[in-house]
Amino acid sequence: MRLLLALLTIFVLLVPAQGARLVSQLSNDTVEITSSYSGERMTFFGSIEPDAGSTEPVVGPFHVVIVVVGPTQNRVARQKTNNFGIWINTDQVEYENFPSYFHVLSSGRLTDITDVTTLTTNNILPEAYTLDANSADWWKNAVFGRQLVRLMGQQGLFGIQENGVNFLSGNFYSARLTLPSGAPPGPYIAHTYVFKGGEIIARKSEGFAVRKIGFERFLALSAVQQPLLYGIICVILALFTGWLGGVVFKR
Questions:
Q1: 69: Cβ–Cβ under 8 A, 6 or more apart, which residues?
Q2: Which of 50, 61, 107, 108 could join 165 via S-S bond, C-beta 3.0 to 4.6 A?
Q3: What is the rounded distance in angstroms from the CA atom of residue 119 to the CA atom of residue 189?
Q4: Contacts of 233 (CB under 8 A, 6+ apart)
Q5: 194 near 22, Cβ under 8 Å?
Q6: Global pTM?
Q7: Per residue in 184-218, pLDDT tens?
């Protein structure tokens, strides 16, 4: 009996891992923000195929996790303390390359798909981005980072939607995500991971852009590239609005 178990173990170790590749697509690669922009629905879909040159079909069950990451920036989390009736900032932690938008779509509970270590090392959990901080106090980094993730979630910029990926067949999936109206403009990346037995067997990254167009784009660029012109335009608009309001209410 022991000899049989040993032979079976050797056979399993010698069998090569099943190769797979991911063929995926986004519904659109550009989201345009106008004055009437109230959000945009995006669709992610794809199929899990055998590796190039392989004749063996890939067999599930599979799990798919899609991580949408917006433009990164250095972000500071501050702690306010009430001192003699005045709220002031008393402590802070700066996080480098922190995403301005982060949303996860998955075909099941993340902890059922794989372990926390795999989720963290592949930046699938939002807390993974709080590990890169300028403070040496890891406990303070964790506390401030947890609160920062919570605040970003309240603004609709961070979120985890488990069961947000649906399999239409054994190898074909689709998912929908609605970008909020407050989604910051800039480059976005959608990372798609295919899991089988808790391990990543295929992955793919695709980019899309959120950008302002028309008069909104002109104001945004002017505020950064020509602040003097931007200030003059704001003053003119304020004066015109005040004059128009006075005319209307005078009548």
A1: 99, 101, 102, 123, 188, 189, 190, 191
A2: 107
A3: 17
A4: 219, 222
A5: yes
A6: 0.73
A7: 888 999 999 999 999 999 999 998 888 765 555 55
Structure tokens at 72: 């990164």
Neighbours of 142 (CB within 10 A): 15
Contacts of 191 by beta carbon, 8 Å cutoff, 6+ apart = 66, 67, 68, 69, 122, 123, 203, 204, 205
Residue with token string 């067997």? 201
Q: How many CB atoms lie within 10 A of CB 23?
A: 13
Pairing of strands 199-212, 186-196: antiparallel
The structure tokens 């406990």 sit at 139
Asked if residue 112 lies in contact with residue 118, where contact means CB atoms within 8 angstroms, the answer is no
**Per-residue pLDDT reduced to its tens digit, 83-108:** 777 777 677 888 888 899 999 999 99
